[in-house]
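Exercise 7.
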Amino acid sequence: MISPGRLRPWITFSIFAFGLTATRVALPDEPADSEAKIRPFRIEVADSVLRDLKDRLAHTRFPDQIPGSDWGHGPDVAYVKELVAYWRDKYDWRAHEKQLNSLPQFITAIDGIDIHFIHVRSRHENATPLLLVHGWPGSFVEFQKIIGPLTDPEAHGGRAEDAFHVVVPSLPGFGFSGKPREAGWSSQRMAETMARLMARLGYRNYGAQGGDWGAGVVRWLAANDAACIGSHSNFPPFNRPEADPLRGVTQAEVDRGQKRNAELADHKAYGAIQGTRPLTLGYGLNDSPAGLAAWIVDKFWAWSDHGGKLENSFTRDELLTNVTVYWVSETMPSSTRIYFESQHNQPRPSSMSAFTTRTGGPAPMGFALFPKEINVPPRAWVERAIPNVVHWTEMPRGGHFAAMEQPELLVADVRKFFSTIRAAK
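Solution. The predicted structure, written as C-alpha cells, is:
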C-alpha cells in the first residue's frame, strides 16, 4: 500500500479493512495525516465478504420451535427462514450500496476515532443545519427517506423556509465509523463527538433530531452545546416522578402506559445482557448472519406499529440493508458496548479532549410520541424531567423507527418544531 504521506493532492487510494474498501481523496494543501481533514468516502464491500455471507446463510442451523408459539419466544422460525432465503438468493446489496453511495459521504477523525457521516446541503444557503442521530439496532440508513424532504422541502410539500442542511453520522462503533479501543465511550461522550463534528463542518448554530440512543445524544446537545439551537426527539424519556406522580396525568395516559408495558414485558432481556456481557453475545452475532438478523429483527417486530405483520411497516430490503451494514462492518459487538459503557460510568477516555459546556439555560426541546414507541410516558412526566420542552405531538400511528416507518409524519413535526425555534430568534 502506498504511504498516505506520499500522496499528491487529489490522488485516490484505498484502505482495506474488514472486507471494506474506503475510497479517500487527499485534499489540496492539506497534510495527508491531518486529523482534522474531511475525506470523501464510498461504501465498497469486497466480493469475498458477500460470497462468505451467502455461504454462511446457506449453512444456517435453525432452532426448533414449539408449534403455535409464533413470535412468543422470539422471532418466528418460519419468518426467519424466509428472510434468510431472501437475503441469500434475492436481496441485492450492490443495488442498495449504489443507492447509499448516491448520497455524499465522508469520514473525519475526532478524538482518535474515524466518524463516518452523510452530509447533504440544501440549495437554500440559509437552511438550518440539522444533525440526525440514530440508535441501536438502527444505523445511518434509517434516515434515507427523510433526507430529500428535509433538504428540498419545496419538492416534498414544504416551503423554502423549511429547508435544512442535513448531517447523518454513524455513532462511534456503528456502521462505517471507527470502533472505540478504550473504555468510557458512553452515549454522553459520543454526544461530545457529534458536537465536534458539527463544529468541524463550520456550523456555528444547528438543530438536532434523534431517537433511541440518538435521543439521549440530542438531549445532551440541547443541554450542553452552545451551538445547538434546539433538539427534536421521537423517543421521550420515561421518568416517573417520586412525588405526586399522577399530577397533570390523564387516565388515558395511565392506561396507555400500562398497556405498552405489558406488551413489552418479555422484550427487555436484550438490554440486560448488552449492558453487562456484550462480548459474550458478540461471539455469536459476529459469526452467524442469521443470528444477527434474528436479533435485530426481533426489535423491529416489538417496537413497530405493524399490526401483526412486520412488512406492513418495513420492506424486507429495508430490514436487510440495515442488517447488512452491521454484518459487513462487523459492528454488532462494538455497537452493543454503548449499553455497557453508558451504564458503568467509566473514566473519560484518554483520547478525548475536554469539552466546554454551554452557559445559561438549555436549548428548547420538542417531542413526537408515536404510539408503538418503547416509552409512552405522560406529557406531564416528561415536562417535569425536562423543563425546556416547548413542543409535544402525539402521533396517530408509528413506532420506534419513525424515520423509516412514518417518514412523512416525522418530517412534518420536525419542520413544525424548528419553525417555532426560528420564529423565536
